[in-house]
Amino acid sequence: MLLLLFLTASVLVIWAKQTGLGKVFSGTEQKGREERGSDVLRCHALASAGTDAPEGRGQGRWRVFANGTLAIARAGLEDRGQYLCTAANPHGTAQLLVTLSVVAYPPRIAGGRWQLLTAHSGKPVAVACRAEGRPPPTIAWVLANKTHVSDSSTGNNDVRVEPDGTLIIKEATVYDRGLYTCVARNPAGTDTLVVKLQVVAAPPAILEEKRERVEGTMGENLKLPCTVTGNPRPAVHWVLFDGTVVKPLQFVNGKLFLFANGTLHLSTIAPSDSGNYECIATSSTGSDRRVVTLVVEPGPVKGISGESLSLHCLSEGSPRPRTAWTLPGGSVLERPQLGRKHVLLENGTLLIRDASIHDRGDYVCRAHNNAGESSVTVPVVIVAYAPRITISSVTDGSAKRRGGTWGR
Q: Which residues constitute the signal peptide according to the record (predicted)?
C-alpha cells in the first residue's frame, strides 16, 4: 500500500493506494488516462482554507500538494487502481475513494506485416518501419544474420536504425539478402514486420562497342577506352594480339599503359602494332569483353636514291593469309620472286633494289585468305641528293682548298 500524508491548515490529508484493483464508485472516479501522462487526483478537505500551491511533498513520482491534490508523474499501467483520500481534524474525518484507469494502446506497424524488397548490390537500402501506440513504442530490428540493432546501437558503421525506426544499410551486398524483422514494443504489447530483402548483383557491362575498328597513323599516340559498370566492381585487363596480358597501372614494352579506368594507352604506334586488342571485364557475377582491331597506317617511307629499300607487311590469320603487293604502276607481285628490281620475300616484305625517284608512289600490300582480305597502303618517297665534294685540307705543304678554288 502507498501512503502519503500532508498536513494543511488544521486538516491532515492522507492518500493511500488500495491493494485491490476492483472499482468502487463511491466518491469521484478518474478514468481514461493515457499511460505515461500525468494524473492529478483531487481531494479538497472542507476545513482547508488553502489553494493549489506548487510546493508539495511526496515519494518519487507521487506528490501531494498543500490543497490535498495527489499528482502522479508519468503514469503507467502499474499505477492503475483505487486511491483513498482521508481528511481528518479534531472534529472528525472524511474520505474519498478514487479509481484510476490507465489506458495504453499496443503498437501497430503501418503497411502490414510482410514485405518484399529488392535492392541493387552496392547501393544503400532504407527499410521503413513506422509504428503507432501509446506510449510510443520502441523500434528494434533483427537482421538476416540474427544481429539485434536499434537506434541506440553503436559500433556498426554498415547498418544503423534511424530515430523513426527506418533501417539503413549503407552499401548492400549479396550477403545481406535474407529476412529482416522489425519489432515495435511498448508495455501494452508488440507488433512485428518481416521484410524479405533480395539483393540483385549487376554483371559487368562494357559501355563501348563490342567490336570496333580503329585506324591510326604511324608515330601518333592512341587511347583505347573500355568503360565498365557492374556490382561488385569488375576487374579490367587487356589481351594483346600476341597474347600479352596488360593489367591496370602496368607498363608493357615501354609503350603500353593501362589506366585504372580501363583505358589502354599506346605510345608512338607503328604498323607492327596493328592487330586485335581485347578488353575483358570480370567479376563474381560474370564477364564482358570488347575487341578493338587496330590498323596503323604507315607514314611516308623515305628511301635514298641508289640504295635498297624494304617495305614490311606482316599478316596473320587462319588459314594463313597470302600476301601480294601492288606497285605504283599497277603491277602486282603475288608470289616470292628474286632477281628483279622488286623482290617479294617469303615473309611478305617487298624489297626495292637500287631505288630511284621513279620508284616513288603508293605501294599497296594485300593479305587475303578464305575468310576475307585486309590491305594497307605505304607511301614511298625517294630522296635524291646533288653531288658535292668534301675535302677538308691538303697537307703536302704547297696548297689548300679555299672557297672551291685552288691557290697558293
A: 1-16
With beta carbons less than 8 A apart as the criterion, state whether 101 and 80 touch. Answer: yes
With contact defined as beta carbons under 8 Å apart, do 41 and 72 qualify?
yes
The total number of residues written for the chain in this structure: 408
Q: Return the DSSP state at 60.
A: T
3-state helix, strand, coil in the chain (%, to 5): 5, 50, 45
From first to last of its 408 residues, the chain has per-residue pLDDT tens of 444 434 333 445 556 666 543 332 223 334 444 444 555 555 654 433 333 333 455 567 788 887 888 888 877 778 888 888 888 888 888 888 888 888 888 999 998 889 999 998 888 999 999 999 988 999 999 999 999 999 888 878 889 999 999 999 998 988 899 999 999 999 889 999 999 999 988 889 999 999 999 998 877 899 999 999 988 889 999 999 999 999 999 988 888 999 999 999 999 888 889 999 999 999 988 899 999 999 987 678 888 999 999 888 878 888 889 899 999 989 898 877 666 889 988 888 899 999 998 999 999 999 999 988 888 888 899 988 767 776 655 555 444 444 443 333
CA distance 29 to 99: 5
DSSP string covering 240-271, please?
A: -TTS-EE-TT-EETTTEEE-TTS-EEE-S--G
Do 21 and 80 touch, CB atoms closer than 8 A?
yes
Domains delineated in the chain: 2-103 (2.60.40.10), 106-200 (2.60.40.10), 205-296 (2.60.40.10), 301-383 (2.60.40.10)
Place of cell 603500353: 256
Report the run of H or E that residue 365 belongs to, with start and end: strand 361-369
Radius of gyration of the chain (CA): 49
pTM, rounded to two decimals = 0.44
